[in-house]
Amino acid sequence: MRLVLASSSPRRLELLGRIGVVPDAVIPADIDETPRPGERPPIYAARVAAEKAAAVPAAGALVLAADTVVAAGRRILPKTDDETEARRTLELLSGRRHRVLSAITLIDAEGRAHHRLSTSIVTFKRFGADELDSYLASGEWRGKAGAYAIQGRAEALIRTISGSFSGIMGLPLYETRTLLRAAGYDLG
Ligand SMILES: Cc1cn([C@H]2C[C@H](O)[C@@H](COP(=O)(O)OP(=O)(O)OP(=O)(O)O)O2)c(=O)[nH]c1=O
After folding, report:
1. Is it the case that residue 58 has pLDDT exceeding 90?
2. From atom 16 of ligand 1, which residue's Cα is the shortest distance away?
3. I want to staple 171 with a disulfide (CB 3.0 to 4.6 A). Which of 12, 91, 94, 152 is the partner?
4. Taking a C-beta distance cutoff of 8 angstroms, is the pair 115, 49 a contact?
5. Ligand 1 lined by 80 (C-beta under 6 Å)
6. Strand partners, 67
7. CB of 71 closer than 6 A to ligand 1?
8. Cβ(115)–Cβ(46) below 8 Å
9. Ligand 1 within 6 A of 79 CB?
């Protein structure tokens, strides 16, 4: 059975590889990721994952897409390439708990869409000015939801996580495996 990963994220490809899954094709979905006014973070993540999966044409193949959102209360924090915005985001996350929502959609061979949502809680230490500066200098925050990447230096700034490491990183592997199996994909 053919599997298409509808993602431009190297993290998602890497995470799939960890469970022995190599997609037959990787086709990034080009969709508008602007949140709707007042849209709640879990609703937004689920909608965007579904839209990414639907945007990739793959008749008869399975299509997997995901969306990861860092949320402070009802606020969706940005995925940015701008250092000032990254600093502001990290200042907001400093010393407090936040949620990471990773939604996945799998379109099965019959064209039906299946959805799962993984929710994690992450608590960062309170950052000193030097810690913030050196994290920003690392550049690891670029293009990552919430301006950090748990799979890099940020892991050493995190006091606790509750939930799914792979979900925080971008593709919750438990939910992914569950949906792939249910769709008849052979995971070996
Ligand atoms: C919170 C967090 C996010 N991220 C990344 C995963 C995603 O690539 C990105 C969230 O943005 P997404 O919009 O979910 O994904 P993307 O635009 O990078 O890729 P695509 O839509 O094509 O699939 O943030 C990490 O790598 N580590 C983390 O700890």
Report:
1. no
2. 9
3. 12
4. yes
5. no
6. 103
7. no
8. yes
9. yes
